[in-house]
Amino acid sequence: MNDKELVAIHAAKLVKDGMRVGLGTGSTADCFIRELSRLHKNEDLKVIVIASSVVSAIKARELGLPLQSIEQTDRIDLYVDGADEVTLDKTLLKGRGYDLVREKLLAKAADQFVVLIDKSKLVGRIGERFPVPVEVMPFAWRMVKDSLEKLGGRPTLRRTANDDGLVVTSHGSLVLDTTFDATINIVKLDEALNAMPGVVEHGVFRRLASSVLIGTDGAIQVLGPETKLDSQEIDSQDFVDDGSADGD
Questions:
Q1: Torsion of CA 99, 12, 222, 53, to 10 degrees
Q2: 38, 161, 205, 221: least buried by Cβ within 10 Å?
Q3: CATH 3.30.70.260, the chain: domain bounds
C-alpha cells in the first residue's frame, strides 16, 4: 500500500451513514473514491456523493456510488480532495486540472474539508513548485494579465499538452498560470485575486481546509484545526519533490 492509498483509506473512515460527501479529482482522490465504494458495497455504508469534475462523476457512477449533481446541492458534510502544494498553515494550491470553480464551491460548502497528500506536496510557501492558476473569462484575459503583472506576477496562458491550442476549463474559462516572487504575501494575493474583475476563480485555497492528512513512509501525519507545527516538527525542505502535481 502506498502513501496515497493509506491516507485515502484513513479519510474514508470519517464517512458516516447518511453523509453527503464531495469527491475530489486526481490520483489521491481516486483512491478515496475506490475505498468509499468498497464501504458502500461491502459494509452497506449509506452515502450520497457530489463530484467536483466529470471525471470523478464517471468514476463514482461506474463504482456504484449514489450521485447527486452539484446543481442540487446547497451544503455537504465532508469534502475530500488532494492538492498540488500545502503549507503548514493548511493553505493549499490547487488547479493543475480544469475544475477550480467546482472544487472551491465544494470546499466552501463542506462542514469539513479533508485534504489528502503525500509528503512531496508539503512546501514552505504557495507557488514554490507550481505557478498559481488564475481562471479568467475568455474576453477578459488580457486585462486580467495586465492586472496580474501589476501585482508582480508573470502570467502565461495555459496551453494543451500537445501545444495545439489553449486549455479551456470545465467552466468554459481560460487559465493564466502565474508565477510570483518568493516574497509575495499570500494573504494579500488571495484578497487581490478575489477582488480582481474578470477572474472567475484561482488556485489559492486559504482558510478552507479543516485538516490535512500527510502520508509519510507508511505513516500518517495530521495537520488539524489545533495543530501547531513548525519547521522542526515537519520540515518541507526534508521532503523530496517527485515533480508531479495531483491533477486538481
A1: 0
A2: 161
A3: 132-201
User: Kind of pairing, strands 76-81 and 19-23?
Assistant: parallel
Using CA atoms of 103, 7, 47, 75 in order, give the dihedral in degrees to the nearest 10.
Answer: -30
Per annotation, catalytic residue among 5, 43, 85, 103: 103
Locate CATH 3.40.50.1360 in the chain: 3-124+206-238
**Strand ranges in 57-159 using DSSP code E only, listed in sequence order:** 76-81, 85-86, 92-93, 110-118, 132-136, 154-157
Grid cell of 202 as nine digits: 484561482
Residue 128 annotated in active site: no
Q: What is the pTM of this model?
A: 0.89
Alpha-carbon distance of 221 to 206, in angstroms, equals 20
Residue-wise pLDDT tens digits, 183-238? 999 999 999 999 999 999 999 999 999 999 999 989 999 998 765 444 334 444 44
Q: Cell 487581490 maps to which residue? A: 192
Q: Which residues contact 102 (CB under 8 A, 6 or more apart)?
A: 51, 52, 53, 70, 170, 171
CATH number belonging to the domain at 132-201, selected among 3.40.50.300, 3.40.50.620, 2.60.120.280, 3.30.70.260: 3.30.70.260
Q: What is the CATH number of domain 3-124+206-238?
A: 3.40.50.1360
Query: If DSSP codes are grouped into helix, strand and coil, which group holds residue 95?
Result: coil
Buried b (16+ CB within 10 A) or exposed e, 21-51: bbbbbbbbbbbbbebbbebbeeeebebbbbb
Please state, in angstroms and rounded to a whole number, the distance separating the CA atoms of residues 158 and 178: 10
